[in-house]
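hey can u check if this looks right to u? its 269 residues, i copy pasted from the old doc so theres a chance i mangled smth
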Amino acid sequence: MAEKKQKQISMAASAIALRGVRLFLSASKAAVERKSPPAPPKRRTKTVVPINKIPQQALESLLRTTRFSKNELEALYTMYRKLVVDAQAAATPTIIGQPVPKIDGIDQNTFRDVMHNTFDLVTEEVVLDRIWSSWDRGVNGGEGALKFEAWAKGLSVLLRGSNEEKRTYCFGVYDLNSDGYITKDEMFLLLKNSLLKQPGDEDPDEGVRDLVELVLRKMDIDKDGKVSIDDYREAVHQEPLLLEAFGQCVPARRHAATFLKTLCTKLST
């Protein structure tokens, strides 16, 4: 019962977060004009950064480290703040009368829903969990949340990353224990979760093992029984379709283009 209730709460929070994305993408000038402008300060002191403005230092850093323009980063920041605020508002107290600690960042449920519904990454749970884990939360995050800098850098790779950036990113997703290799066991787990079980199969695992051997022959360039980043790069260079051999990690071009076009439309309104 508790698990069912928790799932219902998670679904409610995700629905509200997604509503925030839709509002961001379809809002017009009227939404901005309804807000009363702040009263001018009587005395010129330290500049106060509004909630919808990126701190200047972070903006300058992201202009160097991402493939987004200043206007695009500001639009992404508005989206980010909307996602965070809506998810916080949807949080339900675990104990009566005790508020839930607010996480200042994008939580995993919101992240998963954006990947599913905005970028159509309908992929296996193990892959989606690894996508979440691979996004840098280090010093930019805390308590499992994605801060804006990490959010912008991740989206830059997903939407406008070079071939090399996408190869490095996908390899990191598939390297389940982050030891620098995709092993047979990791391939088995990834492929087993992505294949549909056929009725009447007596030993479906055997078919997965055969597939692992087939993929290994294609990708293990140095023939040491596992796939290193160099093996992976070379294999994908020879056959680009192997980029997502173990599960979808990158949005289709049309979904990326639609998101960027909508973002640019929002900037021009």
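Strands lie at 181-182, 227-228.
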